[in-house]
Design a protein that fits this description.
about 325 residues, alpha+beta, 6-stranded antiparallel sheet, 3-stranded antiparallel sheet, about 25% helix
Length: about 325
Amino acid sequence: MKKYLIHLESKSDITLFPDSQKIFGWLISKIYKDNEESDVTKLVNDIFEKNVKCMISNVLPKEYIPLSKEWLIKILSEKIEDEARKKKIYEKIKKIDFIKKIDLKSLINVSVNLVEDDKNLVKFDKYLTKNQSYIQKFRLDEQYYNLPGLLNKAYTVPVIEIINQNTKEPVKEFMIMIKTDSPVIIKWLEKNKDICIEEFLGSKGTQGYNIFMRKGITFEEEDEYKSKNDLYLNMGMLLPEYIIYNKSYIDLYTSDRKSFEITEKIKKVIGFINSGSLICSEKEIFEIGKNIKNKYNIVHKNAIIFGNSYLESFDIENFGGGNGE
């Protein structure tokens, strides 16, 4: 497989950072513009049947990885006996959403080698935190629909910022990671590697939200290192196929989108394994996730729910791969 990074810069307020399933839909819509419908249908079917390989990440802060908090708390708890110190470390870890690989090693060393006043832990700020606030908006229905007597409505819009705790500034640079052996996808990535263009990644684009500047696409040499423990860091929304659950550290996310299937009027929602989860599996990295048919989509009968999120071999001593080492 080949690995590509799509470089993004946020140009507006963000209401929701796109996950790997949404990015898959965006990517297919882009490819559709350059190919026949039959070719795109074949591509989606090949991805579903795993005739071609494709893994996609969420939109992530550039050079940072999502932190597996449960894993970090566990390994530090095994190294530290003092309960008061454990509590301070737990409070710090709760604040960390993204971290660079090299800083993760530093955090572990600082936590294990705390001085009595814990100054090093308190001062540690090389991480990112996701913050959510709300903007109040008003919809003037009477003017919009030109119908006198309609009530105007007040509503709120969630705005998400990722804050660098070292600089106290919001993060503006992001990335999408893709691994694939599909000639169709690779052709599109190569064709667009030098193109800078504005992209609407998510809803509310017409209202001025979720706007990114795509600032090029780069190819990255694959790191062939494989974790001795077969442990992988999940970077997207994963639908699991082959996982050793009792050796994994899993954070579940339940989709709040429309249900993908309605059977006997009972709605079914989708449970994904969230980014930042650590996945243990003895299978080849591409075999860990899966895709499922989207029976709810009445427009595209071959539509799928994409669940092959981007995974990277994980080992704290040998963690490579080009984002933050």
